[in-house]
Design brief:
The structure is a single chain. The chain contains 10 helices and 6 strands. By secondary structure, the chain is α/β, with parallel strands linked by helices. The chain has a 6-stranded parallel beta sheet, sandwiched between helices. The relative contact order is 0.11. It comes from Flavobacterium piscinae. This is Response regulator transcription factor.
Length: 220
């Protein structure tokens, strides 16, 4: 990435773009290189302005955020994407994660966390506002969902046991419950959890859950 983090903004409300511009211009590490009011304009601009980060609403005219993510996934464009949306439907969240989004912020709390989100995503991490994290994790508990038997869709060096534990973590089983389910000790569960975090290059349970979502290990 360039010395400054280059940012493109996309939302169909000019007043929201103006508000983000005002916030981001106060940070010397950021450079806003463009903005778009609809998805069609966005696809054209993002191909040429070499933005590092795209901050994008889902609900836009001409092309919505889902269509934009699908198009970007078919190109060599390397920008990382933060979704900024008033929608927090879990199916929508899971869909954009599968399509490669690196962060998801609720518009209600964006003012408090947008700078942290940009810095985290620019550093190669994922970022989700607290309410979105809670949505993701809670969606896997208490709903009768069973772990999928689908194969992992990317190459990893995970063992069969680690895949079992990954699925159960994503379903919000506690360490004790995983041990009982698989007839192994709590210490063994925690060892596998640490190995998963290291192998998947994630920081926490949310990272494990995102991997499970993207690789179809959980039935939707």
């Amino acid at each position: 990435m360039s010395e400054k983090i280059r940012i493109h903004l996309a939302d169909d409300h000019q007043v929201l773009i103006d508000g983000m511009l005002a916030v981001l211009k106060t940070n010397s590490k950021f450079e806003v290189v463009g903005h778009s009011l609809n998805g069609l304009e966005l696809v054209d601009k993002i191909q040429s302005n070499e933005a590092d980060i795209l901050i994008m609403d889902i609900n836009m005219p001409h092309k919505d955020g889902i269509e934009v993510l699908k198009e970007l996934s078919q190109t060599k464009h390397s920008c990382r994407v933060i979704i900024l949306s008033s929608y927090d439907d879990i199916k929508l969240i899971k869909e954009v994660l599968k399509l490669g989004a690196n962060g998801y912020l609720s518009k209600q709390c964006a003012g408090e966390s947008i700078v942290e989100a940009i810095e985290s995503v620019a550093a190669g991490k994922d970022y989700f506002s607290q309410n979105i994290q809670e949505k993701i994790v809670s969606s896997f508990s208490g709903n009768g969902t069973e772990p999928s038997t689908n194969e992992v869709s990317i190459n990893t060096n995970l063992t069969d046991r680690e895949l079992e534990i990954l699925k159960l973590i994503s379903l919000e089983y506690s360490g004790k419950e995983i041990g009982e389910e698989l007839s192994i000790s709590l210490n063994t569960v925690e060892t596998h959890r640490k190995n998963l975090i290291k192998k998947l290059n994630v920081k926490n349970t949310i990272g494990i859950v995102k991997f499970a979502i993207k690789n179809n290990l959980i039935k939707q």
